[in-house]
Design a protein that fits this description.
Length: 261
């Protein structure tokens, strides 16, 4: 059974969770499919943006509860501790692979984004949510802690007390609260349409500058001022006067859309 689809159209990759009958709950096969989908796009020079969404009633309801028994029966040390994807295991890579992509990733959230689904959404650059969406760090409900990259990604977005409250209580919050806490970028009645529109706008800008911007933002979140200042200059030098930037200048002067080939 297919769990994730990938369609590339007009330089935008549309990645859709297709387990709608299970509210896109993540079982081991789904985790592998999500990681495979993201990995397949990393070295694709044709894509300029990614839209990540879920079919059916929800973006992603979290881990598939039916998988818990199998997890509990296995050796957690052997299953969780091996680093299979660089610094991450496969479940962590479900979220982290989207940060590894060289282009912007926009997640369209509806219904719920709980637990694994919330951490998956955190891996995107931008999250657009329907006003009635609920999000939660759900793991404490099952006597667990978030372990899918959330503790790397959450501190980049919100305050420590917010992370603690959501982790300790496991209570869902609505999209408006998530927006106020910096966990959602913006609200839209039709988040998928809004995400697609944003991706189209991004795809119309300089591909090399967009990739440089994502690299630079990642560096700014992890390095000291000296390193960031150096990379600001390095990225700019590598863009100025190059074909993409010259086409942008020409298009602006001629009041037309740029053509990057």
């Amino acid at each position: 059974m297919s769990r994730v689809s990938v369609e590339i159209k007009d330089h935008v990759a549309h990645v859709t969770l297709t387990r709608g009958d299970k509210m896109n709950a993540v079982d081991p096969a789904m985790a592998e499919a999500i990681v495979a989908a993201g990995t397949s796009l990393i070295d694709n020079p044709d894509i300029r943006a990614v839209v990540l969404s879920g079919e059916g009633r929800a973006f992603c309801a979290g881990l598939d509860v039916a998988s818990f028994a199998a997890f509990a029966a296995s050796d957690p040390e052997a299953r969780i501790m091996p680093r299979t994807h660089g610094d991450a295991n496969v479940m962590q890579q479900v979220a982290m692979v989207w940060r590894a992509l060289p282009v912007p990733v926009i997640a369209a959230l509806h219904g719920v984004a709980f637990g694994a689904g919330f951490q998956l959404a955190l891996g995107a650059d931008i999250r657009i949510a329907a006003p009635d969406t609920k999000v939660a760090i759900m793991e404490m409900k099952w006597g667990l802690v978030p372990d899918m990259g959330g503790m790397v990604l959450l501190p980049q977005l919100t305050r420590s007390d917010v992370i603690r409250r959501m982790t300790y209580t496991a209570e869902p919050i609505d999209a408006a609260q998530a927006l106020g806490w910096g966990l959602v970028t913006e609200l839209a009645d039709d988040p998928l349409a809004a995400a697609r529109d944003m991706a189209t706008a991004i795809a119309g800008k300089s591909p090399s500058a967009m990739r440089a911007a994502k690299r630079l933002i990642a560096i700014s979140e992890a390095e000291d001022a000296k390193t960031v200042l150096h990379h600001e200059s390095r990225e700019q030098v590598d863009l100025i006067g190059k074909p993409h930037q010259m086409e942008v200048i020409a298009a602006n002067l001629q009041k037309r859309a740029p053509k990057f080939g």
